[in-house]
Amino acid sequence: MTRTTAHRSMPASTPLTTTVASDPLLQLQNETAPPSGPGASRCLDHADELALGGIPVICPACKARRDWLLINQGRNVYVRCRCANEWLEPEITRADFNAMVNGQWTNYPTLDAAITDAGFDGSFGGMYLT
Ligand SMILES: [Zn+2]
């Protein structure tokens, strides 16, 4: 979308600093930016079955076969089930995770907040939601 900048001209006395909280556009941009930094965690819904080396992934706790949350932290990728069972999955690499990313992000203050919002905190154990 092309926008004109004519309406953005400000008097010379207007401070040029804008806090994220006071500018809804900057706030939205910040909230949807890709997470970065060494401590960043990224989550990805994976509604379909996962097959690793031809073997389908099955939750060892509840025997679910699909509807996963994939969590990337550093080089590690974890699989989380709706029942809140979670395990490190060494056969899914960061590159695999990156290949599944659709480019749309919602940022959360904590990983737990993201897990809860996505419905993987155990509240929906035994169900497929997607
Ligand atoms: Zn499970």
**Percentage of β-strand residues:** 15-25%
Straight-line N-to-C gap:
32 Å
What bound compounds does this protein have? zinc ion
Biggest sheet details: 4 strands, antiparallel
Poorly predicted ranges: 1-20
Number of helices: 3
User: How many distinct beta strands?
Assistant: 6
Descriptive account of the structure:
With 130 residues, the chain is of the alpha+beta class. The protein has a domain at 37-118. 18% of the residues lie in helices and 18% in strands. It is built from three helices and six strands, in the order αββββββαα. It has helices spanning 24-31, 94-100, 111-118; strands spanning 41-46, 51-52, 55-56, 68-73, 76-80, 86-88. The strands form two sheets. The protein has a four-stranded antiparallel β-sheet, sandwiched between helices. The radius of gyration is 19 Å and the shape is globular. The two termini are 32 Å apart. 15% of the residues are buried. The model is unreliable at 1-20 (pLDDT under 50). The structure holds zinc ion. Zinc ion binds at residues 59, 61-62, 64, 81, 83, 85. Zinc ion binds next to loops.
Keywords, separated by commas or semicolons:
globular; binds zinc ion; 6 strands; 130 residues; disordered N terminus; two-stranded antiparallel ribbon; alpha+beta
Brief overview, please?
This protein has three helices and six strands; from the N terminus they run H-E-E-E-E-E-E-H-H. It has 130 residues and is an alpha+beta fold. Strands 1-4-5-6 form a four-stranded antiparallel sheet, with helices on both faces.
Summarize the helices and strands and which ones pair or pack.
Layout: H1 24-31, E1 41-46, E2 51-52, E3 55-56, E4 68-73, E5 76-80, E6 86-88, H2 94-100, H3 111-118
Antiparallel strand pairs: 1-4, 2-3, 4-5, 5-6
The structure holds zinc ion (ZN).
